[in-house]
């Protein structure tokens, strides 16, 4: 059932606008004719925002870019003032780190607090905040889902700690919990989106982005490494399309019943490496790919809520993989080997 939607155009703030997922949200909002205020750490490096500026020129909505620092109190006060919606998407996503607490957990907590304290000052005009969380905030790798079957929005990660192994998951969990605490304390509406491993086409040829760099740094355990014929595996088998995530963010903002809700968004079943390789071999028969051990797809997530409440149709994983592989090749991030 399609959700009930508000009409626009509205003004939306997108934090971390140059990131992989955030750029897709910016694009979709501009297509809808919205006024978008994108925040970035610095406007001095034009190449990092060139793809956003190109979107602003090509699409119906209006885009303005603003410098804002997640670790500086009050940095978002002006940019959120008068906005209708805030999409808080900026968060540390590092390929490597040494000090989990200082490099991941504290920035995630401080960044969330900084943005949402600014929101609280303008809560009379801001209709809703949509926070980008992660399935990592729900996964309990030691104890499993609460219902003993599939992970749902009712699950919270209680297994991870601020260590090397579970640091990213822990940072996403505590940041989301902090957001819910501030929402309750300050009285603004909140919804959260929990995606799994994000794949799909990259908006703009910008292989230098943080998310893309993380993919490249972990190239041989990611799709990039698979495309280059150097790896036979994704580092996790939980996959979702970036286009679905963007749709979910926007629908969570404008759908009345999304107030106060968490939305898990992912392929319901695992996407094993053998399935990824099979898709790529069929689509790119002239390229070399490593073989992977045959595995069956296994059910992991109940993704019915995001489909039923927000009207999201989950994109087939085959399309996601093909479209991202094509992007990685076209923008030079991945350099495939011919047979």
Structure in a nutshell:
The protein has 339 residues and is α/β, with parallel strands linked by helices. It has helices at residues 20-31, 50-58, 77-80, 100-121, 167-186, 210-217, 223-227, 242-254, 273-283, 304-310, 317-330; strands at residues 11-14, 35-40, 62-67, 85-88, 128-132, 190-195, 197-199, 239-241, 262-265.
Key attributes of the depicted protein:
7-stranded parallel sheet, 339 residues, Rossmann fold
Textual characterization of the structure:
The protein has 339 residues and is of the alpha/beta class. The protein has one domain (11-201, 239-268, 298-315): Rossmann fold (3-Layer(aba) Sandwich), CATH 3.40.50. It has helices at 20-31, 50-58, 77-80, 100-121, 167-186, 210-217, 223-227, 242-254, 273-283, 304-310, 317-330; strands at residues 11-14, 35-40, 62-67, 85-88, 128-132, 190-195, 197-199, 239-241, 262-265. The strands form 2 sheets. A 7-stranded parallel β-sheet has the order 3-2-1-4-5-6-9, with helices on both faces. Strands 7-8 form a two-stranded parallel ribbon. Helix 1 crosses helix 8. The longest helix is centred in the N-terminal third of the chain and has 22 residues, at 100-121. The model has no long low-confidence stretch (mean pLDDT 89).
CATH architecture: 3-Layer(aba) Sandwich
**Beta-strand content bin:** 5-15%
CATH superfamily: NAD(P)-binding Rossmann-like Domain
Helix content: 25-40%
The largest beta-sheet arranges its strands as: 3-2-1-4-5-6-9
Mean pLDDT level: 89
What is the CA-atom radius of gyration, in angstroms? Answer: 19 Å
Structural class, from secondary structure content?
Answer: alpha/beta
């Amino acid at each position: 059932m399609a959700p009930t939607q508000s009409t626009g155009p509205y003004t939306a703030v997108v934090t971390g606008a140059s990131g992989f997922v955030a750029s897709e949200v910016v694009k979709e909002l501009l297509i809808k004719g919205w006024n978008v205020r994108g925040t970035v750490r610095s406007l001095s490096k034009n190449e990092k925002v060139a793809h956003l500026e190109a979107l602003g020129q090509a699409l119906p909505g209006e885009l303005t870019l603003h410098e804002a620092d997640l670790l500086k109190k009050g940095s978002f006060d002006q940019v959120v003032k008068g906005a209708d919606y805030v999409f808080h998407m900026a968060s540390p996503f590092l390929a490597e780190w040494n000090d989990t607490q200082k490099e991941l957990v504290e920035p995630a907590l401080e960044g969330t607090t900084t943005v949402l304290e600014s929101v609280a000052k303008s809560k009379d005009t801001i209709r809703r905040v949509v926070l980008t969380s992660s399935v990592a905030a729900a996964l309990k790798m030691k104890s499993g889902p609460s219902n003993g079957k599939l992970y749902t929005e009712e699950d919270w990660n209680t297994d991870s700690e601020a260590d090397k192994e579970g640091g990213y998951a822990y940072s996403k969990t505590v940041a989301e919990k902090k957001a819910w605490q501030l929402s309750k304390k300050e009285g603004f509406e909140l919804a959260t989106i929990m995606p799994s491993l994000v794949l799909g086409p990259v908006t703009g040829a910008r292989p230098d982005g943080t998310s893309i760099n993380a993919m490249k740094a972990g190239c041989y355990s990611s799709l990039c490494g698979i495309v280059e014929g150097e790896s036979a595996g994704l580092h996790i088998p939980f996959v979702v399309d970036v286009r679905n995530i963007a749709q979910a963010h926007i629908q969570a903002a404008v759908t009345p019943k999304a107030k106060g809700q968490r939305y898990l968004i992912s392929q319901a079943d695992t996407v094993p490496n053998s399935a990824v390789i099979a898709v790529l071999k069929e689509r790119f028969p002239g390229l070399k790919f490593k073989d992977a051990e045959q595995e069956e797809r296994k059910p992991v997530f109940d993704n019915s809520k995001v489909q039923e409440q927000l009207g999201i149709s989950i994109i087939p994983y085959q399309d996601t993989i093909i479209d991202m592989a094509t992007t990685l090749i076209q923008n030079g991030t991945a350099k495939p080997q011919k047979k």
